[in-house]
Every structure is written in structure tokens, then in C-alpha cells.
Amino acid sequence: MNWLLVPLFSGLFLSARSVGIAPRVLILNMFSDEANVWYNIPEFNVLAKNISVPGLSPLFPEVHCTKNGSICQLTTGEGEINAASTVAALLHSPAFDLRTTYFLIAGIAGVNPKVTTIGSVTFARYAVQVALQFEIDAREIPANFPTGYFPQGTTAPGQYPRSLYGTEVFEVNEKLRQLAFQLAKTAEPQLNDTTDSRAARAPYLTAPQFAAAGGSPSVVLCDTATSDTFWSGTLLAEAFENTTKLFTNQSAEYCTTQQEDNATLNALLRGALTKTIDFSRIIVMRSGSNFDRPPPGESAVANLLGPGPGFVPSVLNLHIAGVKIVQAIVSRWKDFEGGVKATNYIGDIFGSLGGKPDFGPGNIFSGKVANFSYEAQ
Ligand SMILES: *[C@@H]1O[C@H](CO)[C@@H](O)[C@H](O)[C@H]1NC(C)=O
Ligand SMILES: *[C@@H]1O[C@H](CO)[C@@H](O)[C@H](O)[C@H]1NC(C)=O
Ligand SMILES: *[C@@H]1O[C@H](CO)[C@@H](O)[C@H](O)[C@H]1NC(C)=O
Ligand SMILES: *[C@@H]1O[C@H](CO)[C@@H](O)[C@H](O)[C@H]1NC(C)=O
Ligand SMILES: *[C@@H]1O[C@H](CO)[C@@H](O)[C@H](O)[C@H]1NC(C)=O
Ligand SMILES: *[C@@H]1O[C@H](CO)[C@@H](O)[C@H](O)[C@H]1NC(C)=O
Ligand SMILES: *[C@@H]1O[C@H](CO)[C@@H](O)[C@H](O)[C@H]1NC(C)=O
């Protein structure tokens, strides 16, 4: 059977743009170890169809799909630039019709020991680009600055940014997040853990504020921070906790740090403006692979350069928890096909998709959708 014709059988509305594969779920990983946990698994085979798409990362030049195209997987490459470029290229590919696709961002992350622990699987409502700021080296900061980072257009840490690029904050569908959380939660008893991870958690228990770091891996609702810089340490962690709160007008609770999500979300937002994708169908899942700061008595550099004891459970748990979401969407498609209607604001800090963000300057397009959108031809 010609796979280009598969959408004909999947009950999708057909138009001139819908000749491509129309995945029900597209899993987005950032590098090989995150991707490998989706290959050679009992549930489905995403290596049955490989589709080359011009503009993907040369390291990961193909989108991988099941034979019937209902589940696909793509590795973006790491860092904000690779993530944005790969997703933008995918959105422009005529090989795909992504208008009803659910996007599952599935990656590992540094984790805030005040909120949860290594091995845990988290679902974010807010993604904050915390390093999109002014920075001066800590050795040169004024005596009254608690950190070398301060928002663009401001004169000191803690002031709301006066110069926004638009990618500072993204908010995704809260109702879909809750649904994904409940589905992943069914896998909680099966989450992987290792003796190395357990040993790495123990030192955090000497500090009461890190009690959450001592638990077993669990499924958690909390927000994510994006920075190209792979940072570590208590002071930067506290600075970015502050930034996350500041940029979202106190709404977000920072728990994971990673290098791509705001970039991926920005590319998807551009796709939503051209009606190539539906921004209400995005799930941001991040599992904890390492702590963002050391336990009491250890240095920031030792934490950063240590053995990474949470790595094995963090990659395994992306599949263990995430597959429940993938399977539910694919098998209960009649419940998902029409979308999960968002009741919260979704989109970027400018209000580009319409509606009124509860952070930033409000909707800068007079409360409407940004005028560079156009109807599908
Ligand atoms: C397509 O394949 C997936 C996984 O192999 C399977 O779960 C699903 O039932 C199949 N059919 C449709 C219409 O998605
Ligand atoms: C798809 O690519 C993977 C390697 O990335 C390979 O193992 C698999 O055999 C390929 N599938 C097909 C149908 O060629
Ligand atoms: C990045 O995206 C997250 C989640 O969507 C959002 O909470 C966060 O505010 C964004 N950060 C920036 C700086 O745009
Ligand atoms: C986690 O995975 C590792 C590596 O496959 C394995 O050795 C260990 O037994 C697993 N632990 C649990 C609790 O499943
Ligand atoms: C974070 O914010 C708190 C409260 O405003 C402040 O006391 C602290 O110095 C800030 N920390 C850093 C590292 O910026
Ligand atoms: C968010 O906080 C900033 C700084 O206090 C303020 O200027 C802005 O109006 C707030 N945004 C919303 C939507 O309340
Ligand atoms: C949107 O942009 C087009 C082309 O520049 C213009 O003709 C139209 O008036 C604009 N619409 C609104 C509502 O601003």
C-alpha cells in the first residue's frame, strides 16, 4: 500500500494540503539516547517507515513512523537553534499533514531538588527562556546584585524585562497537560530507578528544603526552563527560579532545566499561526537526569561533572510514562481527533495566537490573532 494514501483511511478531513502523513502523535526527542527508548519496543515500531525531510539535522535526517503513519518520532538535535530549525523544517514539509497531530516533547532535564527528584517525569504548563537576559560575569557584578543575570532593558535583577523578543514564555494547554499527567501516572509504579540514583539522592536529605529530592521517581506537574547554557549550582538555580516567576508574573514553578523547549515551542507557534499545527495539542514532558544544584557540602562543579546517576532512569522513564499517552491518543482517537479544548490562555508572551496572556505586556495585537496568520489555501 502506498503510504501517502494512508490518511485516506484515517478518517481525516481532506484538502489540498492533506496528502501527507497525518500522525496522531509525533514524539520529539533531542538526542539519540532519548530517541533510542522509542525503538525496538513491544508497543509499536516507529522504524517501519523512514521519511527524509530536507532541513532536518544532518545527524538525524529522517522522521521515523509506524507503518500506518499514526505514530512518528523525530530527533531535533540539541540546543535551541537545532530544535527550532528542525521543527520549522518539519512544519514546511509537504510529506506531513500535522494539523491534528499531538506533539509530545520527550526529553531529559536537570531537576530542582526542592520540587522533585532524578528519574521523575514532569509535565510543564509554562516554558520560560531563562537565559534570554543580560549577563555579566559573577566576579564583576555590583555588590548588591544576587546574580549576574538581569532581564533585558532593565538595570538590576528582579525587574520585569523591558525588551521582549517574544519567546520568553510559552504556555501550553492545561487540560491536555492534566490528561497527559493522569495517563502517565498509571505507569508510576513501573518507573525505573537504580541503586546509583538512590545513592545520589541521599545527601540532599540533610537539607529540609530538599526533602522532595529524597523520594522515588514520580509523575509531577511543574514548569520548565530553557537555556542554551548547561549550567549548574545553587546561585544560578535560585536566579532562574526567580526569573521563571518574574517572567510569568508569579505563575510558573520552575522544576526542570533543558536546552530546547522554548525554541521548539516557538517554531510550533509559528506553525500555529499558519494553521499548519494546532498549538493546543502540545505536551511538554521532561524527566530528571541530574540535579541542577549540589547537595549541602558539595561544590557546583562536582555536581556538574559528576557521574550523572539519574541518566538511565530518566531516559527509560520517558518511554515508560510517555507510551501511556501515545497509546491513549492513538487508540481513543475519536476522543482526541477534535482536540482537547484549552480553557487557559495558550501561546506566547505577545498573545500572537489571540487571547490575553496573564504574563508580559498582554496581547500586543489589540487582543486579536497576529496579522501574519493566514487561512490554509
Ligand atoms: C496504527 O498502528 C498503531 C501502532 O502500530 C496501532 O496502535 C494503531 O491501532 C494502528 N491503526 C490506526 C488507525 O492508528
Ligand atoms: C529506518 O531507519 C532505521 C535506522 O535509523 C533502520 O534501523 C530501519 O531498518 C529503517 N527502516 C526501514 C523500513 O528501512
Ligand atoms: C518558554 O516556554 C515555557 C513553557 O511553555 C514558558 O513557561 C516560558 O515562560 C517560556 N520562556 C520564555 C523565556 O519564553
Ligand atoms: C532500571 O533499569 C536498569 C537498566 O536497565 C535495570 O538494571 C534496573 O533493574 C531497572 N530498575 C527497575 C526498578 O526497574
Ligand atoms: C531571588 O529572589 C529573592 C527574593 O526576591 C532574593 O532574595 C534572592 O537574592 C534572589 N536570588 C538570586 C540568586 O537572584
Ligand atoms: C506582568 O508583570 C509586569 C511587571 O509587573 C507588568 O508590567 C505586566 O502588566 C504584568 N502582566 C500582566 C498580564 O498582568
Ligand atoms: C493584515 O495585513 C494585511 C496585509 O498587510 C492588510 O491588508 C490588512 O488590512 C491587515 N488586517 C488587519 C486586521 O490589520
From TrEMBL:
<dbReference type="GO" id="GO:0003824">
    <property type="term" value="F:catalytic activity"/>
</dbReference>
<protein>
    <submittedName>
        <fullName>Purine nucleoside</fullName>
    </submittedName>
</protein>
<comment type="similarity">
    <text>Belongs to the NUP family.</text>
</comment>
<dbReference type="InterPro" id="IPR009486">
    <property type="entry name" value="Pur_nuclsid_perm"/>
</dbReference>
<feature type="signal peptide">
    <location>
        <begin position="1"/>
        <end position="18"/>
    </location>
</feature>
<dbReference type="Pfam" id="PF06516">
    <property type="entry name" value="NUP"/>
</dbReference>
<keyword id="KW-0813">Transport</keyword>
<dbReference type="InterPro" id="IPR035994">
    <property type="entry name" value="Nucleoside_phosphorylase_sf"/>
</dbReference>
<dbReference type="GO" id="GO:0055085">
    <property type="term" value="P:transmembrane transport"/>
</dbReference>
<keyword id="KW-0732">Signal</keyword>
<dbReference type="GO" id="GO:0009116">
    <property type="term" value="P:nucleoside metabolic process"/>
</dbReference>
<comment type="function">
    <text>Nucleoside permease that transports adenosine and guanosine.</text>
</comment>
<dbReference type="GO" id="GO:0005783">
    <property type="term" value="C:endoplasmic reticulum"/>
</dbReference>
